[in-house]
Amino acid sequence: MTSNAAESLNTRLLWARRLPICSMLEVFRRIVEEWFVERRAAAQSWDHVLTSEAVNKLSKNVEHGRCFPVRCTTLAHLWKVEVGRESFMVDLQHRTCDCREFELDLIPCSHAAAAIRFSGGHIYEFVDRCYKTETVVSMYDSVIMGLPSLEEWILPPYGSPLVLAPVIKKQAGRPRMPRARGGVEAASSSRRQVCTRCHGPSHNRRVCTSQIPIGGVDLNAPPEDVHTEGARRRAPKKCSVCGETTYTRPRCPIRQLTDLD
Question: What's the whole-model pTM score?
Answer without folding.
Answer: 0.49
